[in-house]
Design brief:
Length: 802
């Protein structure tokens, strides 16, 4: 019975236990039912969250996508749900990042510690590369390990970071490479937080020295007021630009600098970013430029050349010389005037413009002589040089310089006049030399003609056959000798007897002759100064000069007119002498001969003094063309100067200037009167290079009883004289000869015999040489052409003298 009771209790106990387990099961079941409901709700909520998330969320297991949200498609462009086992997730990872991603995944599977977040690149379906941030962890999926991944598109952030990094690099490069000093400092105490290399180069402080100090401690602000001004501006406007201040560097030197700065935030706190530019050299250059500008202004102000600036051909600026040249009151008066106002006419303005303006764009300075007009209307000669300020843009204006060249033009005219005088003088000298040479030979021929004619006449009386013919030959020869004398005069080689001469007295003598020879319809007007007019002159030459001028005047007034002769004393000054070749300053006598005739055309003025030039028909009786050339020759031989002024229809003025006599001088050689010829028995040595002249003289001398030895030159004469010295009583010696001339021969003869008697035989143009030879020791002289009487008389005179 007890066994039955125990079994019942046990059954009840077991039943209770079962009831308890059932209750627990029920409770568990209920809990399980509740948990399943919650899990479904959580799973639903999770799915909803993943679908709406902007990040790409996926589950990967065995290399395949098991779950993905919509963002995966949006970010990558791929539909992972359509992938197969042949399309693993690695295909979307950038090739350069696959190894890293695979390594991280393996380590996670093995339970090793790996970064939960890391960055990599993916290749989207369209081929674009994106930067993403991967957040990965291991989970259980369907009872198996799987990888949970979340991708966030950080492409924009990476680009921003790249741009920021690039900007920072650029800023860093700009900061360090800037030639200006760049400073970052605290606003409170000026503590230097950073400086660039430019700061060290300008200030002399190293970067370490600077970062251990402040702007105040380094005393960078040479003037404290400058710092206060900058700080005030920064506090008020947060920035300041190009403030000029004095910057003290490490050496203590003060630099001229420009300061620019602004307030920047660093760590949320205000700091000062300062940029300091050294403008010391620029300031010095500006000062130098100012000095040069001032110097240029001074140069322009004192420049004798007028300088003007025009724009659109309107005056914009002129210097003082411009004002003076054009007769304005001050520099402001011509401003605004049209540039054409400085020209006397539109025609002149247009002419100058055609020359200057087309060349402005070439950048070349162009110039031209022109006529200009002053404010008062007077016209002057000028020279303008013009250039564009900017050749590529002539509208910016032109700069022109104008010089008053009136004096230069006058000087050029004066030089031209002097040149013409010199050419005339050279021409006359050349022709004179030529004429003298011709006359020399011509006189030798005339000597022969006259000599033989005299010999023939000596045997004839008036009425004898041939007497009159011989007289005509002699007369023609004498006329030819007179013509040679005229040639000698314009050749300035004629022999003259210069003595003190009262010009008024000589004019009175000539006018007496003129009054009886000039036609009655020619009125003579004589005005002679009452003061003495004494010159050193040859009276016959002065008379011939006046006669020639009177004859010319008569021919210029065929219908009558007035011939005027005037004398006066004047003083020639340096200015006049400078303009007239060969004229010396000092007291002169002026002789003026003028007429009221037809005048001389300008085209003929340059030739009126030319020998043999005449406007008359060639006629022996009307003239040879030597009249005015003889006048000029006479004036020049007297040391004078002649000018002519004439105007067609109004007459002609000849003015002759002669040096006034200061000291009377006796001529060194004056040929004496020749006594009546006679013969003799002495032996004479004749030295003559011209054979015909030598034969003539030998014939004359031998005819009159003399014994004659002859030689053709000086050397031969010495040889003859040395042999026959004891027999020779006289030597007739020609001056101009080959091998040895007469002067040298005479000197040698005097060495042989100091008492030797010598007669000089000379041609034209040898007066100075004759005087010189006479001084050496010659006893007399005969001038060619000479006749028999002249030669015999001189021979007898010398032989009979002491």
């Amino acid at each position: 019975m007890q066994d039955q009771e125990k079994t019942k209790e046990q059954l009840i106990d077991e039943l209770n236990k079962m009831r308890s387990k059932v209750a627990e099961f029920e409770t568990t079941r209920v809990k399980l039912l509740n948990t399943e409901k919650t899990s479904k709700e959580l799973l639903s909520n999770y799915r909803q969250m993943t679908e709406t998330a902007s990040e790409a969320i996926f589950v990967i297991q065995d290399g395949l996508i098991k779950f993905e949200n919509k963002a995966c498609l949006a970010i990558t462009g791929y539909d992972f749900g359509a992938w197969t086992s042949s399309s693993p997730i690695q295909d979307i990872i950038h090739p350069d990042d696959r190894e890293m991603a695979t390594e991280y995944h393996k380590r996670r599977v093995l339970g090793e510690k790996t970064p939960h977040r890391y960055e990599l690149r993916i290749v989207c379906k369209d081929g674009n590369v994106k930067w993403v941030e991967m957040n990965a962890s291991m989970i259980m999926w369907s009872g198996k390990p799987a990888g949970l991944g979340m991708i966030t598109d950080i492409t924009d952030r990476k680009l921003a970071e790249s741009d920021l990094k690039s900007s920072e690099e650029k800023f860093s490069k700009a900061f360090q490479s800037s030639p200006d000093a760049i400073i970052i400092s605290r606003t409170t105490d000026g503590r230097l937080l950073d400086v660039n290399e430019g700061f060290s180069l300008i200030s002399g402080y190293s970067r370490d020295e600077a970062l251990q100090s402040s702007t105040i401690a380094l005393k960078l602000w040479a003037n404290q007021q400058d710092r206060e001004t900058v700080i005030a501006a920064l506090q008020e406007k947060k920035s300041i630009r190009d403030y000029e201040f004095s910057f003290r560097i490490k050496s203590g030197k003060i630099l001229n600098c420009l300061y620019s700065g602004e307030i920047i935030l660093i760590g949320g706190k205000p700091h000062i970013l300062s940029v300091v530019r050294d403008i010391t050299e620029r300031k010095q250059a500006e000062e130098t430029l100012k000095e040069r500008e001032q110097m240029l202004r001074t140069i322009l102000s004192i420049s004798p050349v007028g300088i003007g600036l025009t724009q659109d051909r309107v005056m914009k600026w002129v210097n003082e010389a411009w004002v003076r040249i054009f007769g304005f009151q001050d520099e402001g008066e011509p401003i605004g005037l049209d540039a054409r106002h400085v020209y006397p006419s539109e025609k002149e303005y247009a002419r100058v413009g055609r020359i200057l303006y087309p060349k402005l764009e070439t950048g070349v300075t162009t110039e031209v002589d022109a006529s200009f007009q002053r404010k008062d209307g007077s016209v002057f000669d000028g020279h303008i040089r013009m250039r564009a300020i900017n050749p590529s843009d002539p509208s910016q204006g032109t700069i022109a310089s104008i010089s008053d060249i009136t004096e230069r033009k006058q000087a050029e005219q004066e030089r031209e006049n002097l040149r013409a005088q010199l050419l005339q003088s050279q021409k006359m000298e050349t022709m004179g030399t030529l004429a003298t040479g011709i006359a020399h030979d011509f006189n030798n021929m005339l000597t022969i003609i006259l000599g033989f004619s005299d010999m023939l006449l000596a045997d004839k009386n008036k009425g004898d056959h041939g007497y009159e013919e011989l007289q005509k030959i002699v007369k023609t020869s004498q006329d030819a000798a007179d013509l040679v004398q005229k040639i000698r005069i314009f050749g300035t080689k004629a022999e003259m007897n210069l003595v003190p001469l009262d010009l008024n007295h000589q004019i009175n003598q000539v006018t007496k002759i003129l009054s009886s020879t000039l036609p009655k319809m020619i009125e003579m007007d004589i005005h002679l100064t009452k003061d003495p007019v004494i010159i050193r002159a040859d009276s016959s030459q002065i008379a011939q000069m006046v006669m020639n001028l009177a004859v010319n005047a008569n021919e210029a007034m065929p219908q009558g007119g007035r011939l005027s002769i005037l004398t006066e004393n004047i003083v020639m000054d340096d200015d006049y002498c400078r303009l007239h070749l060969g004229v010396k300053p000092g007291p002169h006598v002026l002789l003026t001969v003028s007429d009221t005739g037809r005048g001389i055309d300008k085209g003929l003025m340059e030739r009126i003094f030319d020998p043999f030039y005449s406007t008359k028909m060639r006629d022996y009786h009307k003239g040879t063309g030597l009249g005015l050339s003889v006048v000029q020759g006479i004036v020049q031989q007297h040391g004078g100067h002649i000018t002519v002024e004439s105007e067609v229809g109004k007459g002609t003025f000849f003015r002759m200037y002669f040096p006034a006599l200061e000291v009377e001088k006796v001529p060194e050689y004056v040929e004496k009167e020749i006594p009546y010829p006679a013969g003799g028995t002495e032996t004479i040595l004749l030295v003559e290079d011209m054979v015909l002249v030598r034969d003539l003289v030998v014939t004359i001398l031998e005819t009159f009883g003399y014994t004659v030895l002859s030689a053709g030159d000086g050397q031969e004469a010495l040889e003859v004289y040395e042999k026959e010295q004891g027999n020779i009583s006289l030597v007739i010696l020609d001056i101009i000869m080959p091998r040895m001339d007469g002067k040298e021969c005479l000197e040698q003869l005097l060495r042989i015999n100091p008492a030797v008697k010598v007669i000089i035989s000379s041609g034209v143009g040898q007066e100075d040489l004759i005087n010189e030879v006479v001084k050496i020791g010659a006893k007399g002289a005969v001038n060619k052409p000479y006749g028999m009487r002249q030669l015999l008389g001189m021979v007898r005179q010398v032989l009979d003298g002491d």
